[in-house]
Protein: NBS-containing resistance-like protein
Amino acid sequence: GSGKTTLAKKLYNHIELRRQFNCKAFVYVSQEYRRRETLRRIIKDVNVPYIGHLEEIDEEEMVKQLYEFLRGRKYLVVLDDVWDV
Structure:
């Protein structure tokens, strides 16, 4: 490719960006988008506390927990290798 992932990773890991955001996530989506898996990865990367076993929680509860955790925080979520929107 043209190095988009490499550039995104360098920016994501840059020390100044770490200072700008309370939490961040870098998620590879790939060709086959799966909402549940993408949510699970974001939740793990941003360290949402007390969410329990992700396998046992439905998607809407995952969205609610993630929203509540991120509300009021400065966060960065990078979705890489997205094929379709």
Observations:
- The chain has one domain: 4-82.
